[in-house]
């Protein structure tokens, strides 16, 4: 194991590295908002993740490490003001994610009322604190009943939460 900062990373020949040290698992402590303030989607870590050359985790090993997720970076829908290439990368590699609010948004093209959509799609959505390191609880609709989900939605409307489409697995990668 080695601790490196994002500035030390390089990506070449389908390998993320710091000097001669090859990296295939990243435990991410840097928040998404901070990362996006300092780097863009051409950063070596993003390229390696996009190419599935690394698994990015936000939980320590042995505690159910999950695939890294980008949450609402600044409250806008990802379709908003990102350049076209970045919007394409987001659509291809990031689960559908919206900041929970009494608002309209899109899901697979048509406009939707977000709270109503969240309420009706419990089985395929999670409600997560927008900040990776907050003490707020995440709610997984497929693990809850309708009444519990409605209470979770009310909580999410009062605090900075995102609704995120379900991701069933962490893809583990290894080089042979």
Instruction: Give the N-terminus to C-terminus distance in angstroms.
Output: 19 Å
Q: Main sheet: which strands, in order across?
A: 6-11-9-10
- Spatial extent as radius of gyration: 17 Å
Largest sheet: 4 strands, antiparallel
Class based on secondary structure composition and strand pairing = alpha+beta
Oligomer: single chain
Shape: elongated
The succession of helices and strands, N to C, reads: EEEEHHEHEEEHEEHE
Count of folded domains: 2
Give the mean pLDDT. 79
Strand content: 15-25%
**Number of E-type strands:** 11
> Which stretches are poorly predicted, pLDDT < 50 over at least 5 residues?
60-71, 170-176
> What is the tally of helical segments?
5
Helix content: 25-40%
């Amino acid at each position: 194991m080695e601790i490196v900062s994002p500035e030390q990373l390089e990506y070449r020949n389908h390998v993320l590295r710091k000097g001669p040290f090859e990296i295939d698992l990243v435990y991410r402590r840097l928040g998404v908002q901070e990362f996006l303030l300092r780097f863009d989607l051409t950063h070596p870590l993003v390229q390696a993740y996009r190419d599935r050359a690394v698994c990015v985790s936000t939980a320590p090993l042995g505690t159910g490490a999950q695939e890294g997720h980008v949450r609402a970076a600044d409250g806008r829908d990802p379709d908003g003001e990102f350049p076209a290439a970045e919007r394409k990368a987001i659509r291809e590699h990031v689960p559908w994610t919206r900041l929970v609010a009494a608002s309209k948004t899109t899901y697979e093209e048509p406009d939707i009322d977000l709270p109503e959509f969240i309420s009706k799609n419990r089985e395929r959505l999670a409600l997560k604190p927008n900040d990776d390191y907050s003490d707020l609880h995440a709610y997984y609709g497929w693990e809850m009943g309708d009444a519990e989900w409605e209470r979770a939605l009310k909580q999410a409307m009062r605090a900075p939460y995102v609704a995120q489409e379900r991701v069933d697995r962490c893809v583990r990668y290894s080089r042979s």
